[in-house]
Amino acid sequence: MSIFGSIVNAIFGTAKAASEAVAGTVSAATAAVTGGSKPAPMTRAQVEAMIQKIAEDTGRTNYNWKQSIVDLMKLLDLDSSLNARKELAQELGYTGELNGSAEMNVWLHKQVMTKLMESGGVVPDDLK
């Protein structure tokens, strides 16, 4: 599984499975109307609420996950090492130096949050 896939699974895994069971018929109807089964995008507030719930449920409310990719990954119990962040940067198409700079980390956080919102909790095929 990709690093981004692990992030998606950590945030949406169980919540997504539960909501899909309830919303299965709604999703099928929406797919029939729209002609596809692409999940609906989410707002940043929706994504952040799900992550905040994880922070509260685990008692890890002291992480700066809203700004730090390292803290976000730690909150989700994922490897936040430079190697893991390099791999994530390559998955997401970062073109700068893979040196763990502030620039790289800020870009990673922004891209992860954007991709989470766009994907609606599903790992896009190009990031699997």
Protein model, in words:
- With 128 residues, the protein is mostly helical.
- The chain is 65% helix and 0% strand.
- The chain has helices spanning 3-34, 44-58, 69-75, 82-92, 102-119.
- The chain is globular.
Give a concise summary.
This protein is 65% helix and 0% strand. The protein is mainly alpha-helical and 128 residues long.
How are the secondary structure elements laid out?
Blueprint (H helix, E strand, L loop, with lengths): L2 H32 L9 H15 L10 H7 L6 H11 L9 H18 L9
Helix pairs in contact: 4-5
Tell the overall outline. Answer: globular
The number of helical elements comes to: 5
Q: Give a quick account of the main beta sheet: strands, pairing sense, barrel closure.
A: none
Give the DSSP E fraction (strand runs of 2 or more residues).
Answer: under 5%
Mean pLDDT: 83
Cα radius of gyration in angstroms: 15 Å
- How many beta strands in the DSSP annotation? 0
- Helix and strand element order: HHHHH
List segments where confidence is low: pLDDT < 50 over at least 5 consecutive residues: 15-34
Helix content: 55-70%
How does the helix and strand content classify structurally?
A: mainly alpha
Cα separation of the termini: 6 Å
